[in-house]
Amino acid sequence: MDERRRRFEQLVVPHLDAAHNLARWLSRASSDAEDVVQEALLRAYRAFDGFRGSDAKPWLLAIVRNCHYTAAAQKHRHRAEPLPGEGEMEIAADVADPEAQAIDSDRARRLNLAIAALPPEFRETLILREMEDLSYREIADVTGAPIGTVMSRLARARSLLRERFQVEEPVA
């Protein structure tokens, strides 16, 4: 195995789960996410000689993001939006009690729908921060937005989610 491939596998491949997670949230479809990640890996490998950083995760996620938006622009004219509730991601609960499991499942479903309903720039910022644990600087690098914009988008995304859940869940 050549040195370039070894370094690529060492630095980039460990972040495939994060790449797929971001692609899935951006595209809202697992099959589209797989296509985006595959294209992103090809682009990353081709451009790997130009990678000069020490943390490949933000670099790879930026490529995933760009691949998603490129693919979305190409498909936009030919694709219908999914109906609410279609293509929802399942989240498994670690609860043995069927009632608690049903409540947790419903909450997870509503949270997924609420996140999916966020405007794309808020959704991607929230996913990068809360699920992929990137810093504000790394999110700014991935999205190409200033740090202040990243902070503002994250605050707005959290606020929109809070508003949605306060309306839906009665105070006991």
Features of the shown structure:
8 helices; 172 residues; Rna Polymerase Sigma Factor, Chain: A; mainly alpha
Please tell me about this protein's structure.
Helix content is 70%, strand content 0%. It is an all-alpha fold and 172 residues long. It has eight helices and no strands.
Summarize this, please?
This protein is an all-alpha fold and 172 residues long. The chain has helices spanning 3-11, 16-27, 30-47, 56-75, 98-117, 120-131, 136-143, 147-168.
Blueprint of the fold:
Layout (H helix, E strand, L loop, with lengths): L2 H9 L4 H12 L2 H18 L8 H20 L22 H20 L2 H12 L4 H8 L3 H22 L4
Helix pairs in contact: 2-3, 2-4, 2-6, 3-4, 4-7, 6-8, 7-8
The CATH first-level class of the domain at 1-79 comes to Mainly Alpha
CATH-wise, what's the superfamily of the domain at 1-79? RNA polymerase sigma factor, region 2, helix turn helix motif
**Uncertain parts:** 90-95
Question: Which radius of gyration do the C-alpha atoms yield?
Answer: 18 Å
Largest sheet: none
CATH architecture of the domain at 1-79: Orthogonal Bundle
Distance between termini?
61 Å
Mean pLDDT: 84
- The helix tally amounts to 8
Question: What portion of residues belong to β-strands?
Answer: under 5%
User: So what's the oligomer here?
Assistant: single chain
Number of strands: 0
Structural class: mainly alpha
Q: Percent of residues in helical segments?
A: over 70%
Q: Write down the CATH topology of the domain at 1-79.
A: Rna Polymerase Sigma Factor, Chain: A
Q: How do the SSEs run, as a string of H and E?
A: HHHHHHHH
